[in-house]
Amino acid sequence: MQFEPWIEERVLARQGVLHPYDQLDAATTAFVVVDLQNYYTQPGYQGECAPARAIFAKVNQLAAALRAKGGTVVWIKTSADGADQFWSHHHRHMLTPERSARRLLELGSGHAGFAMPPALDVQPGDLTVVKRCYSALAPGASELDAVLKAQGVRTVLIGGTVTNVCCESTARDAMMLDYATIMVDDALAAVTPYEHVHSLNNWMLFFGDVLTVDEVVERLA
Fold first, then answer.
1. Would you list the DSSP string of 129-173?
2. 49 torsion bin: left (phi>0), alpha (psi -120 to 50), beta (else)
3. ∠ CA(127), CA(133), CA(135), 5° rounding?
4. Are strands 155-161 and 29-34 parallel, antiparallel or unpaired?
């Protein structure tokens, strides 16, 4: 991703280099793929982010490269089971009654919307973590932090959808928990290009690095 000069200047002033990680230790790196479920990627679902379908090949590429080097691939899935209770404010005030009901239905763990599209290369050795809200690392949201620590992970690569909501929320919390955290530009998708770029600009300014799939692969050791 090409950043505007003023962004690069501020990043360089803060940390001395534009991209702080020359090499990535695959054995302690996880590719955390957020919410590429049918509900968020396929036509006809309320949560569809149409551009997400275009990143499947890049997600598969990075997952395969990291597996080959001995790294960890984690697929994050959102479940709306019980969300009208544990996330009642969101469902009561941030969604219309119609949208709330549809989210509860289509993102329920027994619905086809909860499943992963067959075009994604989910392998038996990969890990799957179910989350309850935007960030997989918010308190009580999921077991992701424990899963990463059990694998000895110190670096987190973030892909999936949507860039500026669940992906950015998870990435921010990863950074706050002291993981080296990289948003992978072409393995992420938002509803509009503006939202995607705006999110990554802000991430670069304050939180962590942004690399492409090819740039990540080049750094894997």
1. EEESSS-TTSTTT-SHHHHHHHTT--EEEEEEE-IIIIIHHHHHH
2. beta
3. 65
4. parallel
CA distance 125 to 73: 8
Residues 74 and 129 sit within 8 Å (Cβ to Cβ) = yes
**At residue 84, what are phi and psi to the nearest 5 degrees?**
-70, -15
Residue 70 makes CB contacts below 8 A (sequence gap 6+) with 26, 27
Residue type for position 152: G
Q: Which residue has 């950074």 as its token pair?
A: 175
Residues near 137 by beta carbon (within 8 Å), at least 6 away in sequence = 144, 145, 170, 173, 174, 177
Over residues 123-170, the pLDDT tens digits come to: 999 999 999 999 999 999 999 999 999 999 999 999 999 999 999 999
Q: Are 36 and 170 in contact (CB under 8 A)?
A: no
Structure tokens at 74: 């984690």
* Rounded Cα distance, 153 and 25, in Å: 10
CA nearest to 193, candidates 37, 54, 79: 54
Q: What is the Cα–Cα distance from 154 to 138, expressed in whole angstroms?
A: 18
pLDDT at 221 over 90: no
The three-state secondary structure class of 50 is helix
Look at residues 167, 32, 40, 163 and name the one whose alpha carbon lies nearest to residue 112.
40
